[in-house]
Design goal:
single chain; about 300 residues; Jelly Rolls; four-stranded antiparallel β-sheet; 8 helices; 14 strands; about 25% helix; about 20% strand
Length: about 300
Amino acid sequence: MLTVEQIAFYHDNGYLIVEDAIDPGPLAEMQAATREFIEQSRAVSRSDDVYDLDDGHSADNPRLTRIKLPHMQHPVFDQVMRSKRLLSILQPVLGPDIRLHTSKLNTKAPGGGAAVEWHQDWAFYPHTNDDMLAVGIMLADVDEANGPLMVIPGSHRGPVLSHFSNGVFCGAVDPDDPDFDLAKAVTLTGKAGSLSLHHVRILHGSAPNRSDRPRMLLFYECGAADAWPINGIAGGYTGLSQADLWNKMQNQILCGSQLSAARMEKVPVTLPVPPAPDSTSIFKVQASGGAKSAFARESEKA
């Protein structure tokens, strides 16, 4: 359960770190499952429905950017997602009715694991209200060296910046945008078992992993059940019939119930169209859409 001070900090800043959020038993199971997935990826030569492969991946040197939908790939990730411990952290900020949007396990390999350029999740999937967030569970220690998540505090209360390049959605902001102030960024670090929350509209990104250790960060993206997806968003609701949409939303309820009435709030909305040539993952969106790299620029300065 969160304290009053933690809840206020989240609403004011758009993020929060919760230490020792995951019990040692489930944490060890998730770590073992992740290592098993990485080992199995040696037999994979191209990205598929489970794996996003990083540059240089091979049987001798497995390098992944992501394990897709881990809650559907191994039961421990589903169990933790629905656990009373995790929901007791989410309910104070999202309310009693919570629905999963998606899950992913970003597995930055040592020695240059891929960066995620600065963006707002809201640009990918706006809803009727923005009571949505991402939970980032640290499956390994995260420090300044191994590509931690970075956020710009308070940016969740600002505008939705342009995520377009050359007329298509590139899934990243322009580092030259006057409303993008990298100097305000803070890094979210912690020991394995800690977690972060970040608001769906906060500006965030992560640099390449320059350490000799992997950075394994499990994300559950979820929101209030009265936040309904807007037609035209990227992701799992695209092309569904009314019946299929309703069934999927009900099936993804983590606690409480799915509400038939959408709560409409005055929130800024843009849609991720026209799409990038390859929209199969954020890495492919940013690469094929021509996103400018803020991290490459910082590296050149250094």
